[in-house]
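Lecture 7 notes: from sequence to structure.
We start with the chain below.
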Amino acid sequence: MTAVPSEEIGGAATPTATDAPEATATSTDRPTSESMASSTPTATPMEARVPPRGSLSLVRTDVAVANDDGYTEATPRVVLDNVGDVTYELLELRYDLHYTPLGRSDSRRQIASGYGIEEFDGEGGFRPGDRRAISGEIRYLRDGRADRSTDAERFDVAFAFRRVRYR
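Predicted structure tokens for the same chain:
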């Protein structure tokens, strides 16, 4: 109980005993730690240099090539199907750009390398059954190593996984 003032006729206030208010439950628009607690456990993400065997299937690779003020800029793209049973949160790839001179198919050579990274956290992940494209960027000086060509038909790309994160 707490004492609160009470006025008497013609005089000073005197304390009167009252019961303390009881706490009541109210709803709130903001989430609380109790409301955000999940009863379903989530898998701990695994990070590795390569994906689990047989979990990704290559659909196709392609590359776009453009002249950029004395440089050649290549945008390699790899399209993958997730045929496994894990959900990917991140794929990081290394791309090797190759050039084959016109009329000399036996002279294919590596020109430059670059990297691409795709994070799927905000999208719920790269789930089994999904198809995704991962792009990178390769930029190199137009110094003649690819005959100063920007003909995409003369270029192809090879790739390797650098890092994956999945659950």
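Points to note: The chain has one domain: 48-166. Confidence is low (pLDDT under 50) at residues 2-16.
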